[in-house]
Model the fold of this input.
Amino acid sequence: MSRTVDVRNVVIIGSGPAGYTAALYAARANLRPLVLKGIDAGGQLMLTTDVENYPGFPEGILGPELMELMEKQAARFDAELLHQAATRVDLSASPFGIWSGDEEFRARSVIVATGAKAKMLGVPGEKQLLGRGVSTCATCDGFFFRGQDLVVVGGGDSAMEEALFLTRFATKVAVVHRRDELRASKIMQQRAFENDKISFVWDSVVDEVLGDGQVSGVRLRNVKTDERSELAAGGLFVAIGHVPNTQIFEGQLEMTEGYIVVGEPTTATSVEGVFAAGDVVDFTYRQAITAAGMGCKAAMDAERYLETLGH
Ligand code: NAP
Done:
């Protein structure tokens, strides 16, 4: 015998700034949203320390604290928050199906806010020193590295952008790249080559991040000669790409390079009634404030959509 499952107005998948903001707006619109926060709830800000560029906090705030406040604010307005992950979805017909293991949820509209993960090097020291000199976002953390020597890993546009941005604060920026040729666009390469503060360490990888409580340098290995060396640095910026968390939506939502495509300026995906917000969509800005802004838009889009259904 099949079990009847309540059909909810909105299920929000994900709990970074986009998910919590969508929850806040949807809850204040009386939609009683359900948020599947995921197992690693809170998104990428849980991996940062000080956040000084989120408006409203003149003294700055810790990333995890900011996420806790966002969660509390959504909960205050009757969003239901579950500390579990969506493991499967069926978006082929409405009401849409969302599963967390064996538990089934049904919803007239879905907001996908599952974010993206920065790729990490996976070398000793990196995890321990994340937020203590290891960063994946120059825009967020560059300011903390005034007057220091820094290392950026990667050879793509992100690495060049990070390196160029960091020259505003750093004394020197060494870009460590595993090949002798960059993947970045010619214009970004040119800008980086022309910047006196930027140098390149070719054919090399970071084998270990050094430091006791705070980054003090990196251990390098030349992949052609196997020569080992150490480079002193106050910070390491890992810029080797991101992976959007979209595996469970594959084949169901239109995507480009793994990111969900939305009909900008709205947050509508290729499936009517399904909306997406934050880093799962946005590979350009990737900021907490831009994700939160999109979360707001997604809730308003869902609200309007539900109105057309008479809910
Ligand atoms: P990307 O283009 O995929 O580049 C990643 C870089 O990291 C590559 O140089 C790669 O080396 C290196 N890498 C990957 N895994 C590594 C590992 N385990 N160890 C060491 N190095 C590793 O990623 P992205 O730079 O983040 O850019 C993503 C997309 O966004 C691109 O389409 C890019 O054009 C775009 N974007 C554009 C701008 C802009 O126009 N201003 C800014 C940022 C990003 P290999 O080259 O050897 O593979």
User: Anything to note?
Assistant: The mean pLDDT is 95.
